Amino acid sequence: MDRTFLMIKPDGVQRGLVGEIIARFEQKGLKMVAGKFETLPEDRVMEHYAEHTEKPFFAGLKAYITSGPCFLMVWEGKDIVSITRQMIGATNPAEAAPGTIRGDYAMEIGMNVIHGSDSDETAAREIGIHFAPEEITSYTRIDEAFLYE
Ligand code: DAT
Ligand code: MG
Predict the structure, then answer these.
(1) C-alpha distances in angstroms, 3 versus 128, 137, 148?
(2) CA gap 89, 9 in Å, rounded
(3) From the CB of 91, is ligand 1 less than 6 Å away?
(4) 85 CA to middle of ligand 2, Å?
(5) pLDDT at 100 (0 to 100)
(6) Which residue puts its alpha carbon closest to atom 12 of ligand 1?
(7) Which of 61, 84, 86 has most ligand 1 atoms within 8 Å of its beta carbon, as the pocket-test mutant?
(8) Mean pLDDT, range 101-125, rounded to an integer
(9) Which of 11, 10, 7 shows the shortest CA–CA distance to 22?
(10) Average of pLDDT values for 109-131?
(11) pLDDT value at position 12?
């Protein structure tokens, strides 16, 4: 089954949105297979955001993302990367459509509540950065017979 890495950022944790956000993915039919609270150490932030470390906003991004605990997750489902990116919405919450997580719960690009991998390759890379294989569970959800044809 396809996998992705999702992470509720410190603003989402502080604002009490963890449950609301997890509920959206659960109700869609996606399956959480790993989850943990963690304040990210600097080396993992550098690895996770390797493509952005030279950008002008990176110092602010690093300060924000390490400002408190994040809730890190691995989720499974058919075509999950595309589905979760659509559910998360545009990077800038001011441009994110209503009904998306960023559209409904955030105001500015520097505090946009949640991260989601943007491709299958990125998902595999990000899961490997943040989770050991033994932290990821495997189980069948009882409703799968009514989610997949
Ligand atoms: P996304 O999180 O939608 O994949 P991204 O990978 O382009 O977006 O950027 C990673 C994060 O960096 C993004 O969630 C918020 C921050 N960011 C991106 N562009 C920014 C900008 N122009 N100013 C401030 N923060 C920015
Ligand atoms: Mg990205």
Answers:
(1) 12, 12, 16
(2) 15
(3) yes
(4) 10
(5) 99
(6) 61
(7) 61
(8) 98
(9) 7
(10) 98
(11) 98
31 is annotated as contributing to ligand binding? no
Cβ of 26 closer than 6 Å to ligand 1, yes or no, is: no
For the question of residue 48 being annotated catalytic, the response is: no
- What percent of the chain stands above pLDDT 70? 100
Cα separations in angstroms, 72 against 66, 126, 129 = 13, 11, 11
Q: What's the helix, strand, coil split of the chain in %, to 5?
A: 45, 15, 40
Q: What domains are there in the chain, each with its CATH number?
A: 2-139 (3.30.70.141)
Question: What pLDDT score does 131 carry?
Answer: 98
Closest-CA residue to 6 (of 92, 139, 118)? 118
pTM for the whole structure: 0.98
Mutate to test the pocket of ligand 1, among 6, 91, 108, 111 (most ligand atoms within 8 A of CB): 91
Euclidean distance between CA atoms 84 and 80, whole angstroms: 6
Cα-Cα-Cα-Cα dihedral sign, residues 66, 40, 43, 105: negative
